[in-house]
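Data card: per-record layout.
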Amino acid sequence: MIGPQNGGRSARVIGDPYNQVINIMAKGDHIEAMTLEGPWDQTTWALPQDWALYDLSEEFVPQRVTFSDNYWEEHRRLSEQGKIKHDVEHCPERTQPMAVKMWDPQTGWSELKVPPLAGKASGQLASTTKQGH
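The structure for this 133-residue chain is written out next.
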């Protein structure tokens, strides 16, 4: 399991406090895992609008994380409504490493600090971590 403790800020305000891995992508030794960070209509084939993309090591340990552009738009809206007490530019999920829980059958739960990737999603899922990273 990977993901921010109790989901991202926007996810905690608008929906389920826990996220889930909804897609794993691998190309050579590069692995990415996408987590759901908000509501998702699973009756369509469309990807959710609010997601986090984790860049993983070959051992599946999260190295970096980026959030979708829509995630930040939702955060901005919730901040304007007073439901989140800081603006997007000062959000700890953009400016500081995020606490992520990880399960290992041998050692149990552990907490990692995963740095944000450039603070903002590129807007293109397939190339989010491929552009110079």
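Known properties of this structure: Confidence is low (pLDDT under 50) at residues 119-133. Residues 9-121 form one domain.

See the next section for split statistics.
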